[in-house]
Amino acid sequence: MSDKVRPSKLKFKGEKVKKKRKREDGGEGRSTSKRKLDDKDPETWVLPESVNELRGPTFIVHPSDPSPISVNYNSTTNRLALQSLDKDKAEDGEALNVLERTPTDVSQVWVITRIAGSITINLRTGTGEGKFLSCDTHGLVSADRDARGPQEEWTPVVLPDGMVAFMNVYEKYLGVDEVAGGVLQLRGDSEEVGFAERFWVKIQYKYKKEANEEEKKRKDGQTAPPTINETSTNSIHQAWGAGRSVVSSADKTELKRARKEGRLAEAMLDRRAKLKSDRFC
Fold this sequence. Notes:
single chain, 281 residues, alpha+beta, seven-stranded antiparallel β-sheet
């Protein structure tokens, strides 16, 4: 089933955002490091540490040489574009480190969405009508689909160095390829993850925090596994080995003890009955 997604307004670092003031606790309170994290601008662009944190507005950069490039969408031509980030400079005029780069235009932003409980994601353009990044069976990558389907699904892999690889439904990887004339384009037919298939991905801090809070709630909500009476459960619901009940070692010990006590009680009753019979003879 396909569904259409409305474009949403995106915000960038530097825009004025109304912040809610939080009342500080006067007691033992939080640690200084915790407060620093909470005070971070929610629009700050940060690197994800896990696949679960990949959500919301996303900035995708490839560390090409001599200049890193960003994965863009041109809403005028409805085509993908790889843009050099050489023009981005720091305040002192020096070129920014690739990890210091942040999007300066909405065309550089993608929106990651996912189905709950699924490891796959969708990458939707942050501008225009919201087109999905897709890859066909030949490895051709485009962004002209209004609805999501199998070809619009990507499985992200966070690599040990913090970079991210994207695998499509055909189990091939997204990569940067150089074609005739030195032009760079995206392809989706790489068998392995090499330099061309590794991307730096940045997300906004508020979404990273949201993912971590959800994970914490999930872990805190876990309860100990219920204790099951294997003897009664197996007898009522299932039996293996031609009707032979399978029970735990503890239950076996308990059953042996019960049988032994039962035999002793039966022997005592037999003895009493015999004594009583002898008395009347």
